[in-house]
Structure formats: C-alpha cells, structure tokens
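Handout, page 2. Input:
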Amino acid sequence: MARALVWPVVRAGVRVRFVVFDNWYAARENLRCFTRLGLVWVTRLKHNTQVLFQGRKGSVQQVGASVTKANYPYYPQLGARARSFGVELFGQPVKLTVVKNDSHPERDRTKYLATSELSLSNAEHVRWYRRRWPIECFFRDAKQLLGLGRSQARQPQAVLTHMVLVGMAYVTRQLLKPLSSKPHLSVSQSKKALLPLRRLVNSKGAATLVRLTAQGQFEEVEVAQLWEPIRTRLSGLKLPEHLGFP
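Output:
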C-alpha cells in the first residue's frame, strides 16, 4: 500500500525529496522502491532490526549499546542524546542514529532511526523524523474526537465527503485556537468549547450567536471576537460580521 501511494505521486511530477514514515513501513521492498525512485527516506526501526556493523551482523539495539550513554552527545535543541553509526541495511549503506533520553511527546525514550541520506547531521536526522508526528496526531484526534471512522456510508463519494468534512472540522478547530500559546487547548478542550455554541434566530430572521452555559442559559458571543484568530492567521480573508448565512 505504501508503494502504491508513493508511486503515483512521483509519476505525477510532484517534486518530492524526502519520504518519512515509522517502522511499520520499513520493509525491504519499500526501502528499495523509494531508493530506485530517487527519494531520500527517513524511518524508525524496530529494536531487533538486523544490520551489518563493522563487518558483523547484529540488531540495532546491540549497535546502540556498543557505546555507553555517557558518550552520546546531548542536543539541547532536541531535548535528547543522539549518536550515529554507519551500517548496512538490506545491503544498502545507511545512517543509523540512536536517540536516548528523548523528551519528545512520541512514546519511547530510546529510538532507532535510519536514513538513506548519509550527509544528514544527527540533529537534522532527528528533526526530519519528527516532522511526521503532527500527522500522527491528526489521525489520532480525527479518529477519537472528530468521528473519522464512524461513517457507515459505503458509496465512495459519501465516504470521501465524510473525510473532507472531518478535515474541515480539524482545520477550523486549529484556526480558532487562541492566538497566544497559553492556554494551549487540546482537541478535546477546544471541541468542548465549541459544542455549546448555538445560533438563535428571532421572528424577523435576525441571527445571534450564543453559548449555552452550564446553568442552562444563553450567553451572547461576539462573532468578530470568534473570527479574530482566523483573521490574524489568514490576512485578507473576508469573514461575515453577522450570522446572516444559513
């Protein structure tokens, strides 16, 4: 499936240099295919992945343990220790970077990263791998909080529509985040903040945006204030000042 997704992108002429993925996709066939397509790949390896190091075959865990942790340089910008080794994986020379005491939100404090781009520094190697983390967070939040997997539709167009709406809900939630980093709302918190919003329409057709309070009362919400984070992030975007839309 990974090869079936990557190949059409390359064939379509999309300029791709790096392809980044976790250890589920670090199979021999995938790595060889990506290399033939001229792509630089960055992946994580399972601790028992076998490599050739200094003429001897062993696991990446054994390679990492060949140097004491005290001799792993600490990178303040990464919040982790990292050291690289030159190894062969499936007959191809690769750069193995072992990360220890990793403070990154992704699970496991020890990670074994590999890349076909031998010129990457240790910090660059780790940063490239970490670039896929927001995508993992998106799918986790989309499944758990935005109902990505709850559609019972079977028609392709209906399934696609559901996925697009989930994506729109995620983007809207991100855009409506407060401009300041504090407080930094989680998906669950921001969802709870948006759910009480209601649109009240009087007998003359005028609409008012309100929030349902815990006491069961309606509290008016300024539309301009709600739009402010979006206006700031997307300058020039025209947004309605009143709720005159359906």
